């Protein structure tokens, strides 16, 4: 969008994690009005909802929390079954929740319709997507067409992180002047530890390796 401020409303799909919080600040830079939507689907840590609510309050943004607890009924996975260890099979981790992004984006579209938001922003990423098929660019493009046809609206789904690795995502947060905020206030860790997390779960390793690489780059420039 070349840095211009669009005179439009945007809805950010928001978990309170690194990626969605970076997307929130991206939206605040590029859109006149921003609202957030968080989905409560029985995720591994209820703290995720609290973190999202706290950040929304910090930024004085309207925050919608939608009940999606039916997801836990559809398929066993390590994000909704707290007794399962996190593993990977056939290159797809058992933290994958089938149809999660399909349902989330559909409900985000319905909410966007109600609040008059044309733009929907999500932090899905194909570069560091952990093998999740519903984070791929082709899926988002297909879903964008489907949402528009289903509601006869001209929605635009934005994926500012789609082709960024974690190092580049930290660079984006820094360019928005929010690196320290994102680092200290977000929850990415599968063990429910805010900020730098446990340091050993797959999510923490991805996040912290990216941060360390970016900080080294920044020191040399």
TrEMBL record:
ATP binds at residues 14-24. InterPro entries: QueC, Rossmann-like_a/b/a_fold. The keyword Metal-binding applies. Binds 1 zinc ion per subunit. It is an enzyme of class 6 (ligase). GO terms for molecular function: ATP binding; ligase activity, forming carbon-nitrogen bonds; zinc ion binding. Pathway: Purine metabolism; 7-cyano-7-deazaguanine biosynthesis. The keyword Nucleotide-binding applies. Gene3D superfamilies: HUPs. Its EC number is 6.3.4.20. SUPFAM superfamilies: Adenine nucleotide alpha hydrolases-like. It catalyses: 7-carboxy-7-carbaguanine + NH4(+) + 2 ATP = 7-cyano-7-carbaguanine + 2 AMP + 2 diphosphate + 2 H(+). Zn(2+) binds at residues 189, 198, 201, 204. It comes from the Bacteria. Keywords: ATP-binding, Ligase, Metal-binding, Nucleotide-binding, Queuosine biosynthesis, Zinc. GO terms for biological process: tRNA queuosine(34) biosynthetic process. Transmembrane segments: none annotated. Its cofactor is Zn(2+). Homodimer. PANTHER family: 7-CYANO-7-DEAZAGUANINE SYNTHASE. NCBIfam families: 7-cyano-7-deazaguanine synthase QueC (TIGR00364). Belongs to the QueC family. Catalyzes the ATP-dependent conversion of 7-carboxy-7-deazaguanine (CDG) to 7-cyano-7-deazaguanine (preQ(0)). This is 7-cyano-7-deazaguanine synthase. It comes from Macrococcus equipercicus. The gene is queC.
């Amino acid at each position: 969008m070349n840095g211009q401020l669009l005179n439009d409303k945007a809805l950010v799909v928001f978990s309170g994690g690194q990626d969605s919080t970076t997307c929130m600040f991206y939206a605040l830079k590029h859109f006149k009005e921003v609202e957030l939507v968080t989905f409560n689907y029985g995720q591994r840590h209820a703290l995720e909802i609290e973190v999202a609510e706290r950040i929304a309050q910090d930024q004085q943004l309207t925050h919608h929390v939608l009940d999606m607890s039916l997801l836990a009924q559809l398929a066993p996975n390590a994000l909704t079954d707290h007794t399962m260890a996190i593993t990977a099979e056939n290159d797809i981790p058992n933290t994958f929740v089938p149809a999660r992004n399909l349902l989330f984006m559909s409900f985000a579209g319905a909410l966007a319709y109600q609040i008059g938001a044309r733009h929907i922003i999500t932090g899905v990423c194909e570069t560091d997507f952990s093998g999740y098929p519903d984070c791929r660019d082709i899926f988002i493009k297909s879903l964008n067409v489907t949402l528009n046809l289903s509601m006869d609206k001209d929605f635009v789904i934005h994926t500012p992180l789609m082709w960024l690795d974690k190092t580049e995502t930290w660079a984006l947060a820094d360019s928005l002047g929010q690196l320290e905020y994102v680092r200290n206030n977000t929850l990415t860790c599968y063990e429910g530890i805010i900020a730098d997390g446990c340091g050993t779960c797959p999510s923490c390793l991805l996040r912290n390796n990216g941060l360390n690489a970016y900080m080294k780059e920044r020191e040399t420039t």
